[in-house]
Write a structure and sequence with these properties.
This protein is an alpha+beta fold and about 210 residues long. It has one domain (about 50-205): H-NOX domain, CATH 3.90.1520. Helices cover about 50% and strands about 15% of the residues. It is globular and about 60 Å long.
Length: about 210
């Protein structure tokens, strides 16, 4: 893992830091100091973002040429998010607990290229869903309605209020969504589903 990360660092596809992308700096533990790795802009472009200019142009045209009334970009973002909810509603509604629904949402996001993880809150029942890649980040920079609609979609699928703490489109390293009052650990469960490595190893690399 370290060899692969060093290669990505050398190519400028990821950056490394001694601080986590959110929250306080963790206390020093035994052994080698932990490092946080995050995609750089060049790393994000290694994914499929070839249609950014087209999407921005189309949404800009829609916003500029629409008559007075509801925000057309907001309506588009809401319909797009609602379609996404409908595709995955059955998959999440079959889960019996809040923790299993969060873990299933993380799995859905990973299936769609968002490189997601779940991180348990320190000493609390809250969980943070972290999306380390956003396929529409550059479009969302100009049209935050996409992020707002996605947050509402999370609420629909999870059946609870959530709080968006950070977004890649806003310049943060990770899109972070707080899900309050999840009564059991989901970080280990989602990590085990997504990777054969242990949950501790998975969280250290991705957070």
């Amino acid at each position: 893992m370290r060899r692969h990360l060093d290669a990505l660092l050398a190519e400028g596809l990821v950056s490394a830091s001694d601080r986590p992308p959110y929250g306080p700096t963790p206390q020093r533990r035994r052994g080698r100091p932990a490092r946080t790795f995050a995609l750089t802009d060049a790393g994000s472009h290694a994914f499929d973002v070839a249609y950014d200019d087209l999407a921005i142009g189309a949404l800009s045209f829609l916003a500029e040429t629409s008559v007075e009334g509801p925000d057309p970009v907001g309506v588009f973002a809401s319909r797009r998010a609602q379609s996404w909810v409908e595709r995955h509603q059955d998959r999440l509604s079959s889960q019996e607990s809040a923790a299993s629904r969060v873990a299933e949402l993380v799995s859905v996001l990973n299936d769609e290229g968002y490189a997601a993880t779940a991180v348990d809150g320190d000493g609390s029942s809250a969980v943070q869903i972290c999306q380390h890649h956003c396929p529409v980040a550059h479009v969302a920079e100009q049209f935050p309605q996409l992020c707002e609609a996605e947050t509402h979609a999370f609420e629909q699928l999870l059946g609870t209020h959530v709080l968006r703490l950070a977004t890649i489109a806003h310049g943060d390293g990770v899109c972070t969504t707080l899900v309050p009052a999840v009564t059991e650990s989901v970080a280990g469960r989602s990590s085990t589903q997504d990777s054969p490595s242990s949950s501790h190893e998975n969280r250290e690399v991705h957070t």
